[in-house]
Amino acid sequence: MEPLGLAAAVLLLVGAAFSAIVWPPFWRRVAADPRARDADGRATKFLRVHAILIGTALVIAVAQAVVGAWWLVAG
Question: Which helix or strand (DSSP H or E) is residue 71 part of?
Answer without folding.
Answer: helix 45-74
